[in-house]
Specification:
Homeodomain-like_sf; 2 domains; single chain; DNA-binding; Arc Repressor Mutant, subunit A
DNA sequence: AAGGGATGCAACCGCGTTCGC
DNA sequence: GGCGAACGCGGTTGCATCCCT
């Protein structure tokens, strides 16, 4: 065996010692314990020092996506869904960038959400997730509906509080539905202008007439930490301003869409969020009104 | 009850970037 | 400035679980 061969063999031996696949409780404990004592970083040496037969990469991933104390687990909330849609429309698949604006959520989690939920619906609609058709469907149907539901769920608590804040903040931010404004340090939440000149912004005639029967428990489920400092802290004022802007009559419903008829005709706005927001048949029939 | 497809998510991989020597 | 190691990101895979027949 030549020198190169020996090196390869040694590398293989090292590889054989390394564990892969799901982490055990013992491994998790070792990693948490080590990081709590010595901090994170230098992942390869950390893995060795902690006695873990894992690559540094694997340790880093396990820590960031699962073991970190501030990782927020559980269902993606309405608000988070709305934010993901908006930020994705702005930045595309920059998951880590998007994740920075969803406290406690990891890029991996957001990526998985996008792939399993959003792309699934694009597939069902037989259109590309990056197509104008799909983006418009998101923008003019899904996002306003999410915003409506968020307000319906939280009108007595969060949004009313935030609305006050937003109102005062909007002055400082020179916020209105036709401008952009800052979210934390960088995202510019653009309030869409309904296809520029060809489609004008219009109001929904009965935008607040639904979802009021949604059980309050939904809210408790979606916002398990609401009311806590932590939760309040993660509600960015500007995010809520953005949500408010999506809600008619100041929102940006497509003028050609007959939402009143749709709401009378479907049940897709009530019940479980994720499924009912995307009643494919309803959306598809509405899409015909886009005159593509 | 079983088995096969669908789904969701944790984990891995490859590659580009950053850092430190 | 060059080089290797470490880091971070987006894409992909593998597997456990769920659901339907």
């Amino acid at each position: 065996m030549n020198v190169k061969g020996e090196e390869d063999h040694e590398e293989m031996m090292k590889m054989e010692e390394l564990r892969r696949g799901p982490w055990t409780v013992e491994e998790d404990f070792s990693l948490i314990n080590y990081i709590s004592l010595h901090g994170e970083g230098r992942w390869n040496s950390l893995a060795r020092a902690a006695g873990l037969k894992r690559t540094g990469k694997s340790c880093r991933l396990r820590w960031l996506n699962y073991l970190r104390p501030d990782v927020r687990r559980g269902n993606i909330t309405l608000e988070e869904q709305l934010l993901i849609l908006e930020l994705h429309s702005r930045w595309g698949n920059s998951w880590s960038k998007i994740a920075q604006h969803l406290p406690g959520r990891t890029d991996n989690e957001i990526k998985n959400y996008w792939r399993t939920r959003v792309q699934k619906h694009a597939k069902q609609l037989k259109c590309d997730v990056n197509s104008k058709k799909f983006k418009d469907t998101m923008r003019y149907l899904w996002m306003p509906r999410l915003a409506e539901r968020i307000q319906a769920h939280s009108s007595a608590t969060i949004v009313s509080n935030i609305a006050n804040i937003t109102e005062s903040a909007s002055t400082a931010l020179n916020y209105n539905t036709n401008t952009t404004h800052n979210i934390t340090e960088s995202p510019q939440v653009t309030i869409p202008q309904a296809q520029a000149t060809s489609n004008t912004i219009c109001s929904s005639s009965n935008a607040t007439s639904f979802s009021s029967d949604s059980p309050i428990s939904d809210f408790a489920h979606d916002y398990p930490n609401h009311g806590t400092d932590d939760f309040q802290a993660h509600i960015d004022t500007d995010h809520l301003g953005f949500i408010e802007s999506l809600i008619s009559p100041s929102g940006y419903y497509h003028q050609d869409l007959n939402f009143q008829a749709m709401e009378q005709n479907t049940e897709w706005m009530s019940g479980d969020l994720a499924d009912n927001l995307w009643n494919v048949e309803d959306i598809w029939s509405l899409q015909q009104q886009f005159n593509y």
